[in-house]
Specification:
By secondary structure, the protein is of the alpha+beta class. It is built from 8 helices and 6 strands, in the order H-E-H-H-E-H-H-E-H-E-E-E-H-H. The protein has helices at residues 3-19, 43-46, 54-57, 73-78, 87-113, 138-144, 197-201, 214-227; strands spanning 30-35, 63-70, 118-120, 149-150, 156-157, 164-171. Helix 1 (3-19) packs across helix 5. It is globular. The chain starts with a helix and ends in a 39-residue tail after the last helix.
């Protein structure tokens, strides 16, 4: 791995550790980089037709950086019972949005000190409210950077599981590729084993093996915010559920390769 990419991993871990002193919800982050080359040209086809390319954020972009902040098992377990999210799931969502901005800003500042410009987008709510597709999909970028693979739940499964949040930025620094995994699937069902537990756990049946009803899912998120006592008083952007990432074989880990040591403990 290039030295600068290794520095970014260390800095992201330190940033999360410092921030987590006030809230015990997060495990150490994972981080991957990839050259901003032709591989990202597929984004308008696999994500959304108007998806931005790295050069749209920064004309001089040479690299894409994606990081994943996994939640601790105790938060994931707290959100497991019932059909609605627990309050701490909503509170942690708000806090994680700020943490993602903090990590992104810390990485951007470090790269600036090295003489490299960077550009980033908000942690969330950068999507089309009609089609419900993002113009900058952290999940698709992470997939292309080798940080994880998509599961049946349409979430990214990383070596540290799928229970967490993603952030990304682009930079003119030449970081090269530093994937955490190859092309192997991390979803048990996609490996040919019996699972589909995420499908069974969706409280509104928005998930199927080959289909995903985005509108049904998003409607549920808004219902959760405005009609459940647990989330009362939280920010208007706290549209959460999380039932498709908890209590799964891939929630805090994955049955796949790990190229740079074991995943962080749950």
């Amino acid at each position: 791995m290039p030295a600068l990419a290794a520095d970014l991993r260390r800095i992201s871990e330190e940033a999360v550790a410092r921030y987590a002193l006030g809230a015990d919800w997060w495990r150490p982050p994972l981080l991957s980089t990839a050259a901003a080359d032709h591989r990202f040209d597929v984004l308008p086809r696999i994500a959304s037709s108007d998806h931005l390319l790295p050069r749209d954020l920064l004309v001089s972009a040479k690299s894409v950086i994606v990081f994943f902040i996994p939640f601790k098992k105790k938060l994931l377990d707290e959100n497991t019972p019932g059909k609605f999210p627990c309050r701490n799931w909503g509170v942690a969502y708000q806090a994680t949005n700020r943490l993602i901005e903090h990590v992104s800003g810390t990485l951007q500042a470090f790269l600036a000190e090295q003489g490299h410009r960077s550009a980033l987008t908000p942690a969330t709510h950068n999507f089309d409210p009609i089609g419900l597709t993002a113009r900058w999909s952290h999940k698709h970028l992470a997939h292309l950077c080798g940080l994880g693979r998509f599961g049946i739940n349409r979430q990214l499964i990383t070596p540290a599981g799928c229970g967490g949040r993603l952030g990304s930025l682009v930079t003119e620094a030449d970081l090269g590729d530093s994937p955490l995994m190859g092309e192997e699937e991390l979803c048990l069902h996609k490996q040919g084993e019996t699972c589909l537990r995420c499908v069974a756990l969706c409280p509104v049946a928005a998930l199927e093996e080959h289909e995903f009803d985005r509108q049904r899912c998003y409607t549920r998120l808004k219902v959760n915010l405005h009609h459940t006592e647990a989330l009362a008083g939280l920010e208007e952007t706290t549209e959460v559920c999380g039932k498709c990432v908890v209590d799964l074989p891939c929630t805090t880990g994955s049955k796949g390769s790990w190229r740079h040591g074991p995943p962080p403990p749950p």
